């Protein structure tokens, strides 16, 4: 299990390569990148802040829970803080598993739960203003299943 909060570019290729093992039939990756707009507003950059110690502890708990809950072999969960520009990775989730279904389910649950529960905040700077972003609600199908 690899869980980190970093202030520099996330090592996406290295993390994906180190996660693969002979027992795996799937490695599912969520590479959350900064997009150039939100709801039609042109994005200049994002600033991420966190209550670092609490966020790291909660991320470690989520990674461990995903391994047990979904029966996957391993999880990497990394988040970047600081200023990020369009195209940069803000969050990286890699799930290794014998089966693709478990890997997909764990990966989806991890990003949805992280965004809802972990004390990491995003400030979006647009060409026409700045806002602190609200967390996204859980997708209906995940919330209804109690996952």
From TrEMBL:
<dbReference type="Pfam" id="PF02391">
    <property type="entry name" value="MoaE"/>
</dbReference>
<protein>
    <recommendedName>
        <fullName>Molybdopterin synthase catalytic subunit</fullName>
        <ecNumber>2.8.1.12</ecNumber>
    </recommendedName>
</protein>
<dbReference type="InterPro" id="IPR036563">
    <property type="entry name" value="MoaE_sf"/>
</dbReference>
<dbReference type="GO" id="GO:0006777">
    <property type="term" value="P:Mo-molybdopterin cofactor biosynthetic process"/>
</dbReference>
<comment type="similarity">
    <text>Belongs to the MoaE family.</text>
</comment>
<comment type="subunit">
    <text>Heterotetramer of 2 MoaD subunits and 2 MoaE subunits. Also stable as homodimer. The enzyme changes between these two forms during catalysis.</text>
</comment>
<comment type="pathway">
    <text>Cofactor biosynthesis; molybdopterin biosynthesis.</text>
</comment>
<dbReference type="GO" id="GO:0030366">
    <property type="term" value="F:molybdopterin synthase activity"/>
</dbReference>
<keyword id="KW-0501">Molybdenum cofactor biosynthesis</keyword>
<dbReference type="InterPro" id="IPR003448">
    <property type="entry name" value="Mopterin_biosynth_MoaE"/>
</dbReference>
